[in-house]
Amino acid sequence: MTYGKRLLALMGIDTFIVMSAVFIGGYLIYDTNYIGMPIIFASSLTLVISHHLYAHLFKLYKRVWQYASINELIEIFKAVSLSIATTGLMQIIVFTTLHSRTLIITWMLHILFIGGARFAWRMFRDTYMTSSKNKKRTLIIGAGSAGTMIARQMLHSKDSELWPVAFVDDDMTKQHLEIMGLPVEGTVHDVQKVVKHAHIQHIVIAIPSMKKADLQRIYEQCIKTGVRTQILPLMEDLLSGKVSVSQFRDVQVEDLLGREPVELDIDNIADSITGKTVLVTGAGGSIGSEICRQIMKFQPARLILLGHGENSIYDIEMELKQQDSPTEIMTEISDIKDKDKMQFIFSKEHPDVVFHAAAHKHVPLMERNPEEAVKNNVIGTKNVAEAAHKNGTETFVMISSDKAVNPTSVMGATKRIAEMVVQHMNKTSSTKFVSVRFGNVLGSRGSVIPLFKKQIQAGGPVTVTHPEMTRYFMTIPEASRLVIQAGALAKGGEIFVLDMGEPVKIVDLAKNLIKLSGCSIEEIGIQYSGIRPGEKMYEELLKDDEVYPEQIYPKIHIGKTPEIEEAYYMHVLENYTRITSEDLRETLVNIANFTEKERVLTEMG
């Protein structure tokens, strides 16, 4: 029906309702004696005209009534009350009298008939056009505003495959009550009991602002039921409009292992990035690409994506160019081992800020190819750092690793030596050179999680090196945000260490992933394959003598690692091609573990 036809139909219905209300009200007061009374006809005409005027004023003819709610009822109340008041004013002015009893009854009938006519369509839609037939009986955890919104959408949507049956909520004041016609059946501890007696087929956790520890506690109760459990999208996605509240997603391991987000110092970061030229090496990688996404929020003048792999650089370039941003996106396909090319790019672009994320990070592969680790992680870093120094870069931030602490692997040793290179460069340059250490990131290409997921999809078993193997984890977005924050805090020479929270056993991570996949641990199985070359049982972020206990910013520490003279590592960079892999591996680890105390003892003879 077109808008014009719909408007005429509604006005016709309202005219009939108004006339009916007036004459029924008159009949109830005057019996049949009101017939022929001029005041009744004048009142009817005034009420009809004023009703249409106020209905237009409050947009009653523009509302979609199948979604009518309390707001529509309030607008009806306003329009009817004002039209009755206008009619009463007319009676006083024209007839010098006020038929108050008739007007009160007419007002009541007017609201009843108008509201009933409007809400009848919604009642019909809710009763006959939506049905629980062939829909999954759903338990909603959280009877707050998000939970009631979800319940309303499920009840009113023909397309939803879910049908709300009950709530559970830890708020004791809501127990034994009904919300949206659905009972609050208990607390989170009652989930298993509710699922069983209410024949629940699906669970939705509807508490978008809950802490990670609470989500883990709730999910542990849900997983015991064997029923698929989903949660609301991330709050930042809801606020940004990327997704709606009805777009549920499966619980992910990041939800269970992640920590509470840190509020960034937006002004400080903006001062260091907004309007400037920023270059990111390894921009196509997991960390590098996320750093680019986070940087875009601060609108640098130019963002240069530097990487060796053309496909990954193309992907992040296309993604960033889809954003509505004034930032100019530029790409450079190059290898950081190419010193001349680094000099050329930096002399051409003159970046103000550099985030150096390019590196070889796979521990076992680097054990077998130590010379490649030296070329990429150490010499590549030195090339980029020297290019930044020579071309006036303000801040250079190198992404390091927790494996650089007491390193036993080639990968960790080369990252520690790269830290030494950066620290030495800071002493001789106006550029502020800093390093940022953190542990494993969930979901990165080098993470164990993609491997575990593939093994689960193949039916198992999941392979874990050792039952006591422990690692630190954080999410890629959190790590990237903290790296950018550390860059804004840089004064030069620091090794920033991100607070990784509590370490996690790899076997517990594997068990969580198996449960999240909907399988049982017995069904998939876990096998222990033994510690691989170069791996440590536990990772550290700082040595005991390197720890400053206070945080300079939430979740960011400054390490007090000793600065090692360039001579103590330069000889291996100049001669690594002449050393056998086994000797090179040992030499790298020895250099990386070289301390200030050992330097003094060496100089003393």
From TrEMBL:
This is NDP-sugar epimerase, includes UDP-GlcNAc-inverting 4,6-dehydratase FlaA1 and capsular polysaccharide biosynthesis protein EpsC. Gene3D superfamilies: NAD(P)-binding Rossmann-like Domain. SUPFAM superfamilies: NAD(P)-binding Rossmann-fold domains. It comes from Alteribacillus iranensis. Keywords: Membrane, Transmembrane, Transmembrane helix. The chain crosses the membrane at residues 7-29, 35-55, 76-98, 104-121. Belongs to the polysaccharide synthase family. Residues 278-558 form the Polysaccharide biosynthesis protein CapD-like domain. The keyword Endoplasmic reticulum does not apply.
